[in-house]
User: Fold these one by one.
Assistant:
Number 1:
Amino acid sequence: MSNSLEEWAERIFARDRRAMARAISAVESGEAGGIELLKLLFPKSGSAYVVGVTGSPGVGKSTLVEKLAAEYRAVGTTVGIVAVDPTSPFTGGAILGDRIRMQAVAVDEGVYIRSMATRGHLGGLAPAVQDVVTILDAAGCQVILVETVGVGQDEVEIARHADVTVLLLAPGMGDDVQTFKAGVLEIADVFVVNKADRPGADRVEQEVTAMLGLSERREGWNPPVLKTVATTGAGIAALREALDRFRAFGEQDLRRLLRRREQWRTCLMELLRQRLLEKALDALDEGALNARVEDILAQRRDPHTAAEELLSTFMSGKGKLAGK
Ligand SMILES: Nc1nc2c(ncn2[C@@H]2O[C@H](COP(=O)(O)OP(=O)(O)O)[C@@H](O)[C@H]2O)c(=O)[nH]1
Ligand SMILES: [Mg+2]
C-alpha cells in the first residue's frame, strides 16, 4: 500500500497525467488514500506561482485564462489550470491548439486543466482547491491559474490562497465598481478591464483607478489597471508582465511571507473545522438526533438546549449517544 503510494507520487513528480487525474479525483472525493498521497506530495510543492483569477460570471475569466496559459506556454512555462467556476466551460480553443502542438514535443509538458465541480467532502471549497494546487505544484506546473467566480465568501477565500489575485471587470456587466464586493476589491493585486472592445471600458477603467486613488492600503505595490480583449488576446502579454512584476516585487518583500502565513493558518483552521465536524457527526447517532427532534416538536426542549446537550455528550468523549 505505502509502496504503491510512493509509486503514485513518483508518477506525479514525472507529470504522468493519469496519475495526476487519479490524485485529484481521490482528493475531491475525500478518499483516505488521497490524503496520504498529499502528505508525500507536499514537500515537493511550494514553488509554483498561483494566480487567482476572479470576477462575475460572463466577464471573460475562462477566455482570459486560456489566453494567459497560451502566453505562458509561449515563454516556456508549464501551466496548470483549476477552474472552480462551473458556469462556463473552457472552450478549449487556445489550449487545445497548444496541446496538439505539444504532443509532438513531449507528453509530460504543457498545460493541465481541471474543473472542480464538487465542494469536497464536507463543504469547504478552499481546502479542496488548495489540495489540487499542491498536486499540480508537485507535478511541476510552474504557474497555476485558478479561476473562481468572485461572488461568494468561498471564492474570496480561494482568491486569498493565491500568490496574486487578478480581478476581472467588464463594461456593461452590472458590476460597477461601487457595487462590487468590497472584499474582492481589497484583495485584488491586478485589475483587468476585459472586453475593452466594448463601449464603456474606459469608464470602468477610470472608476477603478479613482477608487484605487482613494484607498491607500498598499505600501510599495500599486495595483495596475490593465485593459484586455480576451477573445483576441490583446493585452494578455502585458498582463503576464504585470504578474511577473508582482512576483518579483513579492519576493523582495515580507508581505509574501505574511500572506502565506495567513493562508496556511486559514487552511489549517478550515481543515480542523472539517475534521471536528466529521468526528462529531460520526459520534452522533440518528436515534439521539431524532429523539431531540421529537423533544423540540413536543416543546419539551428548545433547539439550543438540545444542540448543547448533543454537543456536551460528544465533548465528554462518551462516544455514541443513547437515543433515549
Ligand atoms: N467582446 C468580447 N467578448 C468577450 C471577451 N472576453 C470574453 N468574451 C465573451 O464573453 C462570454 C463569457 O466569457 P467566459 O470566458 O466564459 O466568462 P467567465 O464566465 O467569466 O468565465 C463568452 O461569450 C466570451 O466569448 C472580450 O474581451 N470581448
Ligand atoms: Mg468561466
Number 2:
Amino acid sequence: MTAERDGTVVATVRLWHVEANGKPALLLGPLAVSPELQGEGLGRAMMREVIWRAACRGHGAVLLVGDATYYERFGFSGYLTRDLAMPGPVERERFLGLELRDGALSGASGVLVATGRPDAAAPDAEPARKAA
Ligand SMILES: CC(C)(COP(=O)(O)OP(=O)(O)OC[C@H]1O[C@@H](n2cnc3c(N)ncnc32)[C@H](O)[C@@H]1OP(=O)(O)O)[C@@H](O)C(=O)NCCC(=O)NCCS
C-alpha cells in the first residue's frame, strides 16, 4: 500500500504472506515515510489502514520486526512471537506480533516461511469477509 502527494509516493507499507508450521500470518515491512513528512501521523495512518484491510480480508495475525516502542501503540507484542523465529537472526525484542482474531497465533511455533501467495483473502477467510 502506498500514499501519494502530488503524484509522488510519500509513504509505503508492505504485507507478505508467511506461515509457521502451517499457521498463516502476514509479515509487515517495510513501513517507510518520507523524511520531510515524518512525525505528522502518516506512519500511524498507514498502520491503521493496513491492519484494517488485513482484518477485513480475514487474516488472523500480523508479524513484524521493528521498534517495539513504535509498534506497541498498534497492539503489537513480543509475547505472541515467543515461539516463532525468523529465518535469519533478529533481536528478540524487535520480533512482534498482533492477533487480528483471538487465538490466531495460539500454538504457532517454528521458523517463518514465505508462502509466495499473491495478494488475496486469507485461506481460511469466511466468504462474507472475502468481499470486504
Ligand atoms: C518509523 C516511521 C515509519 C514512523 O512514521 P511517522 O509518520 O514518522 O510516524 P507518526 O507520525 O505516525 O508517529 C510519530 C510518533 O512515532 C514515534 N516514532 C517514530 N519513529 C519511531 C521509532 N523508530 N521508534 C519509536 N518511536 C518512533 C515518534 O517519536 C512519534 O511519537 P509521539 O507520537 O509520541 O510524538 C518513519 O519515521 C520512518 O519511515 N522511519 C524510517 C524507516 C523506518 O525506520 N521504518 C521502520 C520502523 S521500525
